[in-house]
Amino acid sequence: MDYIDNIELITRLVKSGFFGIVGIFFIGLAIWIKKNEDRWNFKNIGIGLLAGGVALLLIGVSMAVDSLQDGGVIAIDRNDPVWLIMDAIKMLACVLIFAIAGYIMRSKRIKENDMYDMEITGKIIGYDTLTGRTKLPGYAQPTVEYIDPYSGEPDSYMVNQEINRKKHPIGSEYKLLYSREKRTAYEKKSNKVYREMEVCFFGLAVLIFIAGIVKLIMNVL
Fold it and tell me: What is the pTM of this model?
Protein backbone atom coordinates (compact mmCIF):
# COMPACT_ATOMS: atom_id res chain seq x y z
CA MET A 1 0.00 0.00 0.00
CA ASP A 2 1.59 3.26 -1.12
CA TYR A 3 1.45 6.71 0.46
CA ILE A 4 -1.61 7.86 -1.54
CA ASP A 5 -3.51 4.69 -0.62
CA ASN A 6 -2.67 5.23 3.03
CA ILE A 7 -3.97 8.80 2.91
CA GLU A 8 -7.17 7.66 1.19
CA LEU A 9 -7.71 4.91 3.77
CA ILE A 10 -7.13 7.28 6.67
CA THR A 11 -9.51 9.82 5.12
CA ARG A 12 -12.24 7.21 4.77
CA LEU A 13 -11.69 5.98 8.32
CA VAL A 14 -11.93 9.55 9.61
CA LYS A 15 -15.24 9.98 7.77
CA SER A 16 -16.63 6.74 9.19
CA GLY A 17 -15.32 7.69 12.63
CA PHE A 18 -17.09 11.03 12.35
CA PHE A 19 -20.42 9.27 11.69
CA GLY A 20 -19.83 6.96 14.64
CA ILE A 21 -18.84 9.77 17.03
CA VAL A 22 -21.83 11.89 16.02
CA GLY A 23 -24.07 8.85 16.48
CA ILE A 24 -22.70 8.21 19.97
CA PHE A 25 -23.08 11.92 20.81
CA PHE A 26 -26.74 11.87 19.68
CA ILE A 27 -27.43 8.73 21.73
CA GLY A 28 -25.80 10.27 24.81
CA LEU A 29 -27.71 13.51 24.32
CA ALA A 30 -31.00 11.60 24.01
CA ILE A 31 -30.25 9.74 27.27
CA TRP A 32 -29.40 13.02 28.99
CA ILE A 33 -32.66 14.57 27.76
CA LYS A 34 -34.60 11.58 29.05
CA LYS A 35 -33.03 11.94 32.50
CA ASN A 36 -33.89 15.65 32.54
CA GLU A 37 -37.38 15.16 31.13
CA ASP A 38 -39.02 16.99 34.05
CA ARG A 39 -37.01 20.11 33.28
CA TRP A 40 -36.68 19.93 29.50
CA ASN A 41 -39.66 19.57 27.22
CA PHE A 42 -37.63 17.86 24.47
CA LYS A 43 -39.37 14.49 24.23
CA ASN A 44 -39.77 14.65 20.45
CA ILE A 45 -36.20 15.79 19.92
CA GLY A 46 -34.98 13.02 22.22
CA ILE A 47 -36.76 10.36 20.18
CA GLY A 48 -35.31 11.72 16.95
CA LEU A 49 -31.81 11.96 18.41
CA LEU A 50 -31.92 8.38 19.65
CA ALA A 51 -33.13 7.01 16.31
CA GLY A 52 -30.67 9.07 14.32
CA GLY A 53 -27.80 8.30 16.69
CA VAL A 54 -28.20 4.53 16.45
CA ALA A 55 -28.52 4.73 12.67
CA LEU A 56 -25.41 6.92 12.35
CA LEU A 57 -23.46 4.57 14.61
CA LEU A 58 -24.40 1.58 12.46
CA ILE A 59 -23.53 3.49 9.30
CA GLY A 60 -20.15 4.52 10.75
CA VAL A 61 -19.24 0.96 11.70
CA SER A 62 -20.28 -0.31 8.27
CA MET A 63 -18.22 2.38 6.52
CA ALA A 64 -15.17 1.57 8.66
CA VAL A 65 -15.38 -2.13 7.80
CA ASP A 66 -15.77 -1.33 4.08
CA SER A 67 -12.77 1.03 4.22
CA LEU A 68 -10.55 -1.54 5.94
CA GLN A 69 -11.57 -4.17 3.43
CA ASP A 70 -10.96 -1.93 0.41
CA GLY A 71 -7.61 -0.92 1.89
CA GLY A 72 -6.52 -4.53 2.21
CA VAL A 73 -6.30 -4.42 6.00
CA ILE A 74 -8.98 -7.09 6.38
CA ALA A 75 -10.33 -9.60 3.90
CA ILE A 76 -14.07 -10.17 3.73
CA ASP A 77 -15.96 -12.11 1.11
CA ARG A 78 -18.89 -9.87 0.27
CA ASN A 79 -20.79 -12.85 -1.12
CA ASP A 80 -20.31 -14.86 2.06
CA PRO A 81 -23.74 -15.69 3.59
CA VAL A 82 -22.59 -14.49 7.01
CA TRP A 83 -21.62 -11.07 5.68
CA LEU A 84 -24.85 -10.80 3.68
CA ILE A 85 -26.82 -11.62 6.81
CA MET A 86 -24.90 -8.94 8.75
CA ASP A 87 -25.67 -6.41 6.02
CA ALA A 88 -29.33 -7.38 6.17
CA ILE A 89 -29.38 -7.06 9.97
CA LYS A 90 -27.83 -3.58 9.83
CA MET A 91 -30.32 -2.48 7.20
CA LEU A 92 -33.30 -3.91 9.10
CA ALA A 93 -32.06 -2.33 12.35
CA CYS A 94 -32.01 1.13 10.74
CA VAL A 95 -35.43 0.55 9.18
CA LEU A 96 -36.84 -0.64 12.51
CA ILE A 97 -35.41 2.35 14.39
CA PHE A 98 -37.02 4.90 12.10
CA ALA A 99 -40.26 2.91 11.83
CA ILE A 100 -40.59 2.83 15.62
CA ALA A 101 -39.84 6.55 15.83
CA GLY A 102 -42.52 7.20 13.19
CA TYR A 103 -45.03 5.05 15.08
CA ILE A 104 -44.31 6.96 18.31
CA MET A 105 -44.96 10.25 16.52
CA ARG A 106 -48.14 8.79 15.05
CA SER A 107 -49.39 7.76 18.50
CA LYS A 108 -48.71 11.25 19.87
CA ARG A 109 -50.64 12.93 17.08
CA ILE A 110 -54.31 13.73 17.67
CA LYS A 111 -56.55 12.32 14.98
CA GLU A 112 -58.38 15.21 13.36
CA ASN A 113 -61.69 15.21 11.50
CA ASP A 114 -60.67 17.07 8.35
CA MET A 115 -59.26 20.19 10.04
CA TYR A 116 -60.16 20.00 13.73
CA ASP A 117 -62.95 18.88 16.03
CA MET A 118 -63.71 22.14 17.77
CA GLU A 119 -62.05 25.28 19.03
CA ILE A 120 -62.19 26.19 22.71
CA THR A 121 -61.00 29.23 24.64
CA GLY A 122 -59.13 28.99 27.91
CA LYS A 123 -57.22 31.33 30.18
CA ILE A 124 -53.52 31.42 30.95
CA ILE A 125 -53.08 30.63 34.65
CA GLY A 126 -49.29 30.44 34.81
CA TYR A 127 -45.97 30.02 33.05
CA ASP A 128 -43.30 27.38 33.25
CA THR A 129 -40.16 29.34 34.02
CA LEU A 130 -37.92 26.66 35.55
CA THR A 131 -34.21 27.39 35.34
CA GLY A 132 -32.81 26.48 31.94
CA ARG A 133 -36.21 25.89 30.38
CA THR A 134 -36.89 29.28 28.83
CA LYS A 135 -35.01 29.63 25.57
CA LEU A 136 -35.65 33.35 25.00
CA PRO A 137 -35.91 36.17 27.55
CA GLY A 138 -39.53 37.14 28.11
CA TYR A 139 -40.83 33.90 26.65
CA ALA A 140 -42.17 30.83 28.47
CA GLN A 141 -44.59 27.94 28.13
CA PRO A 142 -48.05 28.85 29.45
CA THR A 143 -50.43 26.59 31.31
CA VAL A 144 -53.95 27.14 29.99
CA GLU A 145 -57.02 26.34 32.06
CA TYR A 146 -60.20 25.52 30.16
CA ILE A 147 -63.63 24.05 30.77
CA ASP A 148 -64.09 20.62 29.23
CA PRO A 149 -66.96 21.07 26.75
CA TYR A 150 -68.35 17.60 27.53
CA SER A 151 -67.88 17.07 31.25
CA GLY A 152 -68.12 20.73 32.21
CA GLU A 153 -65.18 20.25 34.57
CA PRO A 154 -62.11 22.53 34.62
CA ASP A 155 -58.93 21.09 33.11
CA SER A 156 -55.52 22.44 32.13
CA TYR A 157 -53.04 22.04 29.30
CA MET A 158 -49.37 23.07 29.08
CA VAL A 159 -48.61 24.63 25.71
CA ASN A 160 -45.61 23.03 23.98
CA GLN A 161 -44.35 26.25 22.43
CA GLU A 162 -43.00 29.31 24.22
CA ILE A 163 -44.94 32.55 23.78
CA ASN A 164 -44.34 36.19 24.65
CA ARG A 165 -45.41 36.77 28.27
CA LYS A 166 -46.07 40.49 27.74
CA LYS A 167 -48.44 39.87 24.83
CA HIS A 168 -50.11 37.00 26.67
CA PRO A 169 -50.18 37.88 30.38
CA ILE A 170 -51.68 35.66 33.07
CA GLY A 171 -55.45 35.85 32.86
CA SER A 172 -55.55 36.47 29.11
CA GLU A 173 -57.44 34.18 26.74
CA TYR A 174 -55.70 31.47 24.73
CA LYS A 175 -57.36 29.37 22.04
CA LEU A 176 -56.89 25.62 21.81
CA LEU A 177 -58.38 22.79 19.79
CA TYR A 178 -60.32 19.96 21.42
CA SER A 179 -60.56 16.33 20.33
CA ARG A 180 -63.93 14.72 20.89
CA GLU A 181 -62.40 11.28 20.39
CA LYS A 182 -59.67 11.59 23.04
CA ARG A 183 -61.45 14.15 25.21
CA THR A 184 -58.37 16.34 25.42
CA ALA A 185 -57.13 19.74 24.33
CA TYR A 186 -54.25 20.11 21.91
CA GLU A 187 -52.52 22.61 19.64
CA LYS A 188 -52.80 22.59 15.89
CA LYS A 189 -49.13 23.59 15.59
CA SER A 190 -47.97 20.66 17.75
CA ASN A 191 -50.16 18.28 15.78
CA LYS A 192 -48.58 19.52 12.55
CA VAL A 193 -45.08 18.95 13.95
CA TYR A 194 -45.99 15.40 15.01
CA ARG A 195 -47.33 14.69 11.52
CA GLU A 196 -44.25 16.07 9.78
CA MET A 197 -41.93 14.01 12.01
CA GLU A 198 -44.06 10.91 11.42
CA VAL A 199 -43.83 11.30 7.63
CA CYS A 200 -40.09 12.02 7.86
CA PHE A 201 -39.30 8.94 9.96
CA PHE A 202 -41.46 6.57 7.90
CA GLY A 203 -40.00 8.04 4.71
CA LEU A 204 -36.44 7.45 5.92
CA ALA A 205 -37.35 3.88 6.85
CA VAL A 206 -38.66 3.21 3.33
CA LEU A 207 -35.62 4.83 1.66
CA ILE A 208 -33.16 2.85 3.82
CA PHE A 209 -35.05 -0.37 3.08
CA ILE A 210 -34.96 0.23 -0.68
CA ALA A 211 -31.27 1.21 -0.59
CA GLY A 212 -30.47 -1.90 1.46
CA ILE A 213 -32.28 -4.21 -0.93
CA VAL A 214 -30.49 -2.66 -3.92
CA LYS A 215 -27.10 -3.05 -2.16
CA LEU A 216 -27.75 -6.69 -1.31
CA ILE A 217 -28.80 -7.46 -4.90
CA MET A 218 -25.65 -5.78 -6.23
CA ASN A 219 -23.45 -7.79 -3.83
CA VAL A 220 -25.10 -11.05 -4.88
CA LEU A 221 -24.74 -10.25 -8.59
Answer: 0.55
